[in-house]
Design a protein that fits this description.
By secondary structure, this protein is mainly beta. Helices cover 9% and strands 38% of the residues.
Length: 180
């Protein structure tokens, strides 16, 4: 009896070491902590329109307070350089950025901005050439700037939330504003 148990144990050990092409069992998984998203990155900090969220950047000491001042839907262009395609409209998010950290902030906020519709589809920002666009921003500690980030969306599409991540979308934290 002992010998058969030893043989079974040895066979199981050798089978685990062989060059078998069988499928291995998937690794054990755990649910993310409440402060993390399923991807393992921190869950977005959230607010409503008018609310301010402090976001950290990649550089030590980089902290920017971001306020979604208002949503302009539809947005009428100052000039006719970029005209929305037929069946679409422009939506502008008016943001106020204030550098509350100790490091200089230099970024293109539009690169880290996304808008989600009510079906949870992500929409990227567009460049308009408007003078109010937050295309390239540099702020010394204590500095502040207000401007717009634009999105071209189908005319009937309903928007749900706006997200911003510093460092052109590569920063360690994301702010999310509920638009509904």
């Amino acid at each position: 009896m002992r010998r058969s148990v030893l043989v079974i144990a040895l066979a199981a050990t050798l089978a685990g070491c062989s060059g078998s092409t069988g499928t291995a069992a998937p690794p054990a998984t755990t649910s993310p902590a409440p402060t993390e998203s399923a991807s393992g990155s921190p869950a977005p900090k959230s607010a409503s329109v008018g609310g301010t969220i402090a976001l950290r950047g990649l550089d030590e000491g980089l902290v920017v307070d971001v306020t979604v001042v208002k949503v302009i839907d539809p947005y009428q262009l100052e000039s006719k350089v970029l005209v929305p395609e037929k069946g679409t409209r422009l939506v502008a998010m008016q943001l106020k950025l204030t550098n509350t950290g100790t490091a200089a902030y230099s970024d293109s906020p539009a690169n880290g901005a996304v808008l989600y519709d009510v079906d949870d589809v992500k929409w990227q920002s567009v460049v308009t050439g408007e003078s109010s666009a937050l295309v390239s921003v540099t702020l010394s500690p204590g500095g502040s700037r207000t401007g717009l980030v634009y999105f071209q969306l189908p005319t009937k599409l309903r928007i749900a939330r706006f997200q911003l991540t510093l460092n052109s979308g590569y920063g360690p934290e994301t702010g999310e504003w509920n638009l509904g």
